[in-house]
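Quick one: Metallo-beta-lactamase domain-containing protein 1 from Saprolegnia diclina, structure tokens please.
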Amino acid sequence: MRVVQLRVGRARELASGSWDCDCSVTLVQVGSTNVLVDTGGAWAAAELTQSLVSRNMTLDDIALVVCSHGHSDHVGCLALFPEATHIVGRDINRRHEYAAASVLARDQTIGRCLATVAADGKIAHRELPTAPLRVVTTPGHTGACVSVLLEASSAFAFEHADGRIEELRRVAIVGDLWECDGDESWWRDLSEMPTLHESSRAFVLAWHPDAVVPGHGPAFSPHLAPCNE
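--- reply ---
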């Protein structure tokens, strides 16, 4: 397994009171299967395409796209991958065929597994205890938010957006469950359900990831981060 933060997301307030936003984009390679977590906004399609080309990849090389939730800055480039399996929140589809719902829309359980990618790269719409990649429910920022949890028995390479490479064993790619490192004073202002959101953050922290990839910033170590409760 190999993980690359292709783009560091941003969220900054402008003098006008508007916000300049786009999300983090992460590439995960499990066996021969390439997974993209969040796509960024539609305006960033050329940047996303070029980031894959620079790694000798094409859009067709992506087999699974996981969007942590349905906000436009996270799903805007989904149409670039028509042949991939799509997970958007709790919806799972390949082209026009949608998987039967394993978690109902009203179910706000934290940590329910929606899908996995096995070590050999096979995608399954069910829990597989030994799978290195799991898509799990982490509601709060929106009611349908999901996170991608990566775990391996031996260390795998995590490439930061600045090119640094670390050897890690657990990584959580969480969308806007964390906006960025140091978001403690303001994440609740952007949350649909702050109490549930806080519980989802606690769930991820209890899993003890070596790194968290937030929705709008560089990956950080939650053990060192000032934003965590």
